[in-house]
Amino acid sequence: MSLDVTATKPHERLAEALAPEMEAVNLMIRDRMSSEHAPRIPEVTAHLIEAGGKRLRPMLTLAAAKLCGYEGPYHIHLATTVEFIHTATLLHDDVVDESDQRRGRPTANLLWDNQSSVLVGDYLFSRSFQIMVETGSIRVLGILADASATIAEGEVLQLTAARDLTTTEDTYLKVIRGKTAALFSAATQVGAVISGADESVEKALYDYGDALGIAFQMVDDLLDYGGTEAIGKNIGDDFRERKLSLPLIKAVAKSDADEMAFWTRTIAKGKQVEGDLEAALDIMRKHGALDDTRDEALQWAAKAKACLAEVPAHDIRDMLSDIADYVVARIS
Amino acid sequence: MSLDVTATKPHERLAEALAPEMEAVNLMIRDRMSSEHAPRIPEVTAHLIEAGGKRLRPMLTLAAAKLCGYEGPYHIHLATTVEFIHTATLLHDDVVDESDQRRGRPTANLLWDNQSSVLVGDYLFSRSFQIMVETGSIRVLGILADASATIAEGEVLQLTAARDLTTTEDTYLKVIRGKTAALFSAATQVGAVISGADESVEKALYDYGDALGIAFQMVDDLLDYGGTEAIGKNIGDDFRERKLSLPLIKAVAKSDADEMAFWTRTIAKGKQVEGDLEAALDIMRKHGALDDTRDEALQWAAKAKACLAEVPAHDIRDMLSDIADYVVARIS
Which end of chain A is more exposed for a tag (fewer CB within 10 A), N or C? Predict the structure, then answer.
């Protein structure tokens, strides 16, 4: 590898390798988010979709198809579909979480209203199925319908587990498999399916997406507490929203009676006062909850890389391996 | 026809003729609304689905399949799918409209929260696509994905047209084709498609569902102003929510300057005071807006019946014809 290649970030290298395909995906996104009758739809969609997300999920689909040697046109459709499902869930998430910021900009529910976010999300979700239908592949439809159901189930589970101090790591894993990993694994799997890849390759790419998605979400949840070191800014959202994410679950499991009283007040009852976040972080550090979360995230990233052993050698395969490192780079 | 048959209502006769199939649909609904991980999902779904709606939409699918001579198992799947899509849209509608009553009971968003309504709606929507996939029919998936997109588009259009006094009857028709007729016409069409019916029969059943759905919504919108005669109870929701439904659009079109000032204050600006609903009704009656809406609804019901001429003679066909009369019975 030459110096100028290693100087760029893994997802930028992948984006470069897939540039013509991503260009086609961006064109299809713009084309299909339009609505003849309701101009509010492309307005809301454009606000979110053009805010400069990394497009990691559609890139995973394109990458999987490319390394499986796909030569047809439908990887573009599937990547578009994956991005539409992702955008629909973001719109609905922001309503559910009553968020006012996303990707550094005001959320759609703040700029327009909750109604628009709910309905435009529904529209994009329907649109994604329309685009899938064009591929003519019932298997692909089944995989993405399953993923969509798993996403919604994970979100509901997260909602009902919030504030519940008895939430286990097992439940946490189900939540993040739903809300995050299901779309990662479906994204890579459909790339393999549309290419007619061997079952072992399809499974390896599914497992890669699953492990990558889990690592991705664990990193997100760790960074919400500022990572393992210095306290960054904008941390503590999960604490304030009383979400039982992995660092908190790990800390609760090792807490003594006084610490449990603290969690009961701040999380179960939601009576938070100034200084509570710092106190929570002290308890987490004392029990190694942040370090343990970090270790688990690194293990999932390593697992993602290991899955790629089953996939044929290819430049793109190496980039996917680097993506797994990249996802955990902010905490390692 | 014997007296005891004519004594029952058309939708009850249809339900009786389709009793074994509806039983299978109800079983499948209960089976598929479950969730291994998130018990909140069946709780919310059951609240709505067991509140005793008439199940008109799934019955339309079963009726279409039966009169096309279908003998396979998938009409049950499709009827379940149609009811799930309908239930998902009701859950989201109640969030969008901030409703507190549905079918005479508190809404799910009131009993649980908006979050649950949004996410359980998403789950049911995904579930409906999973069930469609089981039929193996890409055409059916395409029809229902199109219908879902049209529903969401109609809802967004209704949202952006609210409070806008320049809304035309043409826009109104687009809104109700989306929010109501799209699922009626898809329900009847997929019954024909799964049966391998002739194109002319499929089109006739599609057109029947479309006209029936339009008549159904116009009746609903007329009854929201108490129908053409006495003022009932619970009327005026659309007026208070400033929705541009047909009676209002027709009245606005014929209003003089004073009346326009009234609409501008009450609808465009939303400054409503005691007695405004009665004043609105007076203007509507003066311009014949309620009678004209009634006439249009009756015309669409007649159109629905006329479409059935293209469909083979069958007991069920006669019942569908009676359903069209039944839908407008409350206003004729």
Answer: N
B261 near A CB under 8 A: no
Say whether A95 and B114 touch across the interface (CB within 8 A).
yes
Contact flag B153-A123 (C-beta cutoff 8 Å): yes
Q: Measuring CA to CA, how many Å separate B241 from each of A107, B175, B268, B308?
A: 25, 16, 11, 37
| C-alpha A40 chain-centroid distance | 26
A96 shares contact with chain B (CB less than 8 Å): yes
Q: What is the DSSP letter of B177?
A: I
Q: What is the CA radius of gyration of chain B?
A: 20
Single out the residue of B58, B152, B282 nearest to residue A41, CA to CA.
Answer: B152
Candidates B36, B112, B118: best to mutate against A (most CBs of A within 10 A) is: B118
Question: Does the beta-carbon distance from B145 to A133 stay under 8 Å?
Answer: yes
**Would an 8 Å CB–CB cutoff place B138 in contact with chain A?**
yes
Residue A1: inside a domain: no
Q: Which residue of B has its CA nearest to A174?
A: B37
Q: Which residues of B9-20 are buried (b: 16+ CB within 10 A; e: fewer)?
A: ebbebbbebbee
Kindly list the residues from chain A whose CB atom is less than 8 angstroms away from the CB atom of residue B154. 37
Give the integer Cα–Cα distance in Å for A203 and B155.
40
DSSP codes of every residue in A21-44: HHHHHHHHHHHHT--SS-THHHHH
* Residue A130 C-alpha, separation from nearest chain B C-alpha, in angstroms: 5
Residue with tokens 């249009």: B296
- Give a yes or no: residue B183 inside a domain: yes
User: Is A44 part of a structural domain of the chain?
Assistant: yes
Q: Beta partners for A105?
A: A102
Do B151 and B178 form a contact (C-beta atoms < 8 A)? yes
Q: Which of B39, B156, B178 shows the shortest C-beta gap to A120?
A: B156
Domain count for chain A, please give it.
1
Alpha-carbon distance of B103 to B43, in angstroms, equals: 17
The dihedral of CA B236, B238, B242, B243: what is its sign?
negative
Does B217 touch chain A if contact means CB atoms closer than 8 Å? no
Residue B149 near chain A (CB below 8 Å) = yes
Cross-chain Cβ contact B125/A123 below 8 Å: no
Residue B5 falls inside a structural domain = no
The residue assigned the tokens 């910021």 is A101
CB contact under 8 A, A160 and B127: no
Q: Are B25 and B79 in contact (CB under 8 A)?
A: yes
Q: How far apart are CA A75 and CA A73, in angstroms?
A: 6
Query: Which residue of chain B has the CA closest to A38?
Result: B157
Instruction: Compute the Cα dihedral for B183, B188, B193, B198 and give only its sign.
Output: negative
Strands B101-102 and A105-106: unpaired
| pLDDT tens for each residue of chain B, 332 residues long | 444 445 588 889 999 999 999 999 999 999 998 887 788 888 888 887 777 678 999 999 999 999 999 999 999 999 999 999 999 999 998 888 777 777 677 888 877 888 889 999 999 999 999 999 999 999 999 999 999 999 999 999 998 888 999 999 999 999 999 999 999 999 999 999 999 999 999 999 999 999 999 999 999 999 999 876 544 446 888 999 899 999 999 999 999 999 999 999 999 999 999 999 999 999 999 999 999 999 999 999 999 999 999 999 999 999 999 999 999 998 87
Does B161 lie at the interface with A, CB-CB under 8 angstroms?
no
> Given the structure tokens 């719109």, which residue do they identify?
A91
Assembly ipTM = 0.92
Residue B317 belongs to domain with CATH number = 1.10.600.10
**Chain B interface, best mutation among A116, A160, A168, A243, by max B CB count within 10 A:** A160
